[in-house]
Each structure stands twice: as structure tokens, then as C-alpha cells.
Design a protein that fits this description.
Helix content is 25%, strand content 24%. By secondary structure, the chain is an alpha+beta fold. Residues 1-21 have low confidence and may be disordered.
């Protein structure tokens, strides 16, 4: 990243260009911008031209963001406007974002055709097949031995494949302990790890529960600040000293941290580029009492992660791998737990395959037991699925959403891990079912809940 002295002149020229009549760029014109570029804090961003929708897409890690054309060389997302700069050969060589200039690194980048289409032509005819037994701890079965309506699922597949529900990456259904439905779209396969985004919070909860079960953390009622004697904190009050580990799990710390409030001092877009996310969180002023109002705050789970590290004297991923991932036979995962600005575009999130997401849901459905072994205590699982707070009008447990979905007038209650883009792990106790949906609808509406309401849950209405 390099700030340039001629930025103001270039911006002036760009604004004049934008003021001209806006014409949507052609696919050929969008190809000029393709490449890998520098991005904030030593990150990289790729720009790709979609042959399907004739739009420019920004790709950071796995996340794809559609950019809106704002005029010659200008594009915008929900949060930023960027303007490409051209060299003497009239080719893009950098772009400007918020007065910073980021240079092109390489034009040598390949974007597979599969990333633009749910299924390529010739492979777009859906026919049910039993999920493959790959000896990963999952039992598979035939869908005809369940109550699930195969005609509804066939219609769902048709809608996804034809693009009526865009950016769905995978759908997996486990019924009565068996994986009976497993489908992937675009470039995603059974072996692809999916970024969980905020669905990672439920993993943080599980790891915290295991640390409590094993006695590393003496009690969920231990105070948070007792783990951070090295911090000299701002806005210190007696109420802040009373914040407990359980308050972090239920998002009831009382700190001024609420994603639904843009003016909140704990806004995560501010936290992202600070040197210590835990200290940033604990420095915040108190606006409520611990155990009071539920406020969705990404600083809470990362604080739990640091507490687990301090209590167990081991890196978070190492503790999670030994006590959760390996017992569940996770073989392909990623968790870069570094709660500081180096993780501003990765969010300290967990990456899992959808199959492993299904295992995690089944673990909770089965009261913490996996293949006969108690991985998390049944008491902690039960407490996770109890209502402790209300977040944005939805009941909330220990970093699990307690949401309901209405299907043709019938209400179904789920416990859900969910994240931006459409990441979902639905646990339905009454239906003895776990549904995993992953997707790429970042910062935009996701069809995950609608797919549940229209094509999966109505199968059970016959029993009502």
C-alpha cells in the first residue's frame, strides 16, 4: 500500500468521468481489470470478470463481492468505491480506495468456468445418488428410507442449478443419524473447506465448553478480567469487573459492542484494524449490566478464544484439534486464531468441509456424543440450547441461534450456527435431523432459510 501525491488529481479526473453518462462495461472491457492486486495490510485481492452476469467481482480469500459499475474505471461495493488507474498503454495497473493506491501484482491468474455456473452444461441434470461412504465417521443412507419428499428436493435442485437461488455452495441433510443428501455447486466439492464466518462462534462455544468440562476453566462464572491481569483497561467500572465467561457465551457483557448499532464504539469494522482485538473489546465502555441486554459482538468469541489459550497453556487450534476436531475425524480444516489486524479479512474464523460441519451438528444433536464417546458434556450442550438472551429479536443460547422457520403454516424450531454468506448448521431435535447449507451471498440476502422452509421442512407437515 502506498499513498501517492497525485491522488487528489486522479480522483478529480475520475469524478469528472463518473459524471459522464454511465455505460455498463462489456465483458471484454471487464477483462482488462482482471488480476491479483495488493490490498489493505499486506492482503491480496483478485478481480475477476463474470462471463455469466457481466459484472466485476472482487475476491478476498474465499469471499466474492459483486461490484457495481459507477462509470469509466469506477466500481462500488456496499462499503467502498474503487477507481482503477491506467498506464501509458491505457491498461489498468492499480486502483485507488479511500485515497490509498494499490498496485497490480500479476495478470497471470486463472478463474475456472465452474466458479460462474452452479453446474456446467452437460452436468446440469440432477439425479439422486446415495452419498459416498468415505470412512470419515459419517454413516450414509438412502433418502427413500426417510420421510423427506424427494420431489421437493428435486425441485430445489432444479432451482439452484438454473440460478434461481444463486451462490449456494452445498446442501447436506443428515436424517436419523445418516447422511442421505449431499450436493455441491460451482467449484465446490466434498473436499473444499468453507469459511464459516460467524458460524465459527458456535465452534468457539464448543471449545470453551470442553475447556470447562476438563477443568482448565473452573467455571462459566469465572470473571473475564481475572484472565487478563496484564491489561490496563479503559472505562473501568465495578460492572465491567463482574463480566463472566457465561456473559461472553450469551452476548450479554454490557459492553458497548453491538453489530446492529452503527454508532456502537465496539463496531467490528473499527476493531478489525486494531493491534489487539481482545483489549479493544475489554476497553469498551459499559452501557448495560452484565447479564442484561443481548448485543451481538464479534469481540466476545475471540475473547473466549484467548481465555481458552490462557487456561490450557496451548494455542487455540492445537487444543481444538486435540479435543474436538480429531475425535470427530476432521481431516481438512483451518483456524488462524490471531485476534489482531493481521486477521482483518479472515476474522479469526474456522474453515471446515460441509461434511465436517454436519458432524459438528450431529455432535450437538446427540447431546455431545460422537460414535459412543462423550466429546462435550451433555450439560454444556443442554445449556447451549437453552434460551439465555435475545439478540436482534431472536432467542439465543451459548453462541447458538434459537430460531424458528415456518413451512406452509407449520412452525419448526431449530438451533443454528450461522454466518454471513449463507453458512448454516441447522440442528432440529424433534425431526432428528441436521441440515448444512453453505453459500457465497456475502453482505446480501441468503436463500438458506427459504430453502429450508420451501423444500426440506414441508416433508414433515404430513405428521402434524
Amino acid at each position: 500500500m502506498k499513498k501517492t501525491g497525485f491522488v487528489s488529481v486522479l480522483l478529480f479526473i475520475s469524478f469528472l468521468s463518473v459524471a459522464q453518462k454511465s455505460v455498463k462495461p462489456s465483458y471484454k472491457q471487464l477483462l482488462e481489470y482482471e488480476g491479483v492486486y495488493h490490498y489493505t495490510d499486506h492482503q491480496k485481492v483478485s478481480f475477476a470478470a463474470s462471463p455469466k452476469d457481466t459484472v466485476l467481482v472482487a475476491i478476498i480469500n474465499q469471499s466474492e463481492y459483486v461490484l457495481k459499475s459507477e462509470g469509466p474505471d469506477a466500481f462500488s461495493s456496499k462499503f467502498d468505491t474503487i477507481r482503477f488507474l491506467r498506464n501509458t498503454d491505457n491498461l489498468p495497473f492499480a486502483y485507488i480506495k479511500q485515497n490509498d493506491t494499490f498496485a497490480l501484482i500479476s495478470k497471470n491468474v486463472f478463474f475456472p468456468k465452474t466458479m460462474w455456473y452452479p453446474r456446467l452444461k452437460g452436468k446440469d441434470i440432477y439425479q439422486y445418488t446415495i452419498p459416498e461412504n468415505i470412512h470419515d465417521g459419517i454413516t450414509v443412507g438412502h433418502i427413500n428410507k426417510t420421510i423427506l419428499d424427494t420431489s421437493l428436493l428435486t425441485e430445489m435442485m432444479r432451482k439452484i442449478i438454473t440460478g434461481a437461488y444463486p451462490n449456494v455452495h452445498s446442501i447436506l441433510i443428515s436424517k436419523d443419524g445418516k447422511l442421505v443428501f449431499e450436493q455441491y455447486f460451482y467449484q465446490y466439492t466434498r473436499d473444499s473447506v468453507q469459511e464459516l464466518r460467524s458460524a465459527s462462534k458456535s465452534i468457539y462455544s464448543a471449545v470453551t465448553g470442553i475447556a470447562i468440562d476438563k477443568g482448565f476453566i473452573k467455571s462459566k462464572n469465572e470473571t473475564v478480567l481475572s484472565y487478563f491481569p496484564e491489561y490496563s483497561l479503559h472505562n473501568m467500572t465495578d460492572a465491567k469487573k463482574r463480566i463472566t465467561i457465561e456473559n461472553l457465551l450469551t452476548q450479554q457483557t454490557g459492553l458497548d459492542c453491538d453489530i446492529s448499532n452503527p454508532s456502537s464504539e465496539g463496531n467490528e469494522t473499527i476493531m478489525d484494524y486494531t493491534d489487539d482485538w481482545v483489549k479493544f473489546t475489554l476497553d469498551l465502555p459499559m452501557i448495560d449490566t452484565p447479564g442484561g441486554k443481548g448485543m451481538y459482538c464479534s469481540g466476545n468469541p475471540v475473547t473466549l478464544g484467548r481465555i481458552v489459550e490462557k487456561a490450557t497453556h496451548s494455542p487455540l487450534l492445537q487444543f481444538a484439534a486435540r479435543n474436538l476436531f480429531e475425535p470427530l475425524q476432521f481431516n481438512n480444516y483451518k483456524w488462524d486464531f490471531a485476534p489482531d489486524k493481521s486477521n482483518a479479512e479472515n476474522y479469526c474464523q474456522v474453515y471446515l468441509t460441509p461434511r465436517d460441519m454436519s458432524k459438528f451438528g450431529l455432535l450437538y444433536l446427540n447431546k455431545g456424543i460422537w460414535n459412543g464417546k462423550q466429546i462435550i458434556s451433555s450439560d454444556f450442550v443442554a445449556a447451549s440450547f437453552e434460551k439465555h438472551s435475545v439478540i436482534q429479536g431472536v432467542d439465543y443460547g451459548y453462541l447458538w441461534w434459537h430460531k424458528y422457520l415456518d413451512a406452509d403454516g407449520v412452525r419448526y424450531y431449530t438451533k443454528a450456527a450461522q454466518g454471513n454468506g449463507g453458512q448454516r448448521i441447522y440442528v432440529l431435535k424433534e425431526q432428528n435431523m441436521v441440515v448444512v447449507i453453505t453459500g457465497g451471498n456475502y453482505n446480501s440476502p441468503t436463500p438458506s432459510d427459504e430453502l429450508m422452509r420451501k423444500y426440506i421442512l414441508p416433508s414433515f407437515n404430513k405428521r402434524k
